[in-house]
Amino acid sequence: MQSQAAAAVTVTGLVKRYGGKTAVNGLDLTVPSGGVTAVLGPNGAGKTTTIETCEGYRRADAGTVRVLGLDPGLPAEAARLRPRIGVMLQSGGVYPGARALEMLRHTATLHAHPLDVDSLAARLGLDSCGRTAYRRLSGGQQQRLALAMAVVGRPELVFLDEPTAGLDPHARHATWDLVRDLRADGVTVVLTTHHMDEAEQLADRVAIVDGGRVIAEGSPEQLCRSDADGTVRFRARPGLDLGALLKALPDGTAAAEATPGSYLVEGAVDPQLLATLTSWCAQSGVMAEQLAVGRRTLEDVFLELTGRDLRA
Ligand code: ATP
Description:
- One of its GO terms (molecular function) is ATP binding.
- This protein has 312 residues and is α/β, with parallel strands linked by helices.
- The protein has 11 helices and 13 strands.
- The protein starts with 6 loop residues before the first strand and ends in a 6-residue tail after the last helix.
């Protein structure tokens, strides 16, 4: 277990209410120093509220929050914290008429040892739109500028709230590369994402939040580990009789319809199990498509822990 001293962020018993609604309900989270921690959770789980409380943008109703050993809820400590952390704002705090590169240069001047603005802009594909007013940037360009502004001051700790939401594949990979470089430089990165592959690619640790609490945490490998030896995934018509399928398969095998028409079989996956599965499909008139043998993914774990219902 990480000691308190080694933690970049420690959240204990955090509660945050909006009117009668409890958004965060006794949340505990420890982010070790260095590495990437991904905070995952369904819509409305309380991720942004938690992150914004750590950034000092929201007041906790109860519980304690320490970021780099400081309390972001106390103005004097927040002022000491601000130069040491990077925050990726979704949109607020930017004058819409300001030009992209001017804003980035201005942010850089607020820090003692900023990154080189031109090379940062180039690697995030912002060099060609450097003279464009913020309000005329595309959504993806605004997103990349927000990321650049969060990291240009070489923070010790950076909070990225859905950094790749709405980005095209090129920008997504450029963002991932930047996060990997931050990690290699010893920066602690806390990111929220709805992309399970992003968490699998980047995160050393994952915390899954639901109902305003952390319901699971660990490395992606720890979370995906299961007693099962493997998985078989396939697509077929929705609503297969999984009870009948399980009767055909060896004891200890599990089967679920992860999303309509998308099936996951877990167990001691060997050639015999595959043969039994495909022969059951043949006998039942089921065309199994995209059949793939593999291991449990973070998405499987996420859906298992948080259920499959859409959140309001
Ligand atoms: P998402 O993945 O959809 O961004 P989230 O996990 O980040 O969700 P939060 O934005 O923290 O969730 O919201 C948690 C709950 O608090 C939601 O039910 C949301 O509607 C509510 N909430 C958030 N901000 C406010 C606010 N300023 N006023 C009232 N309710 C709010």
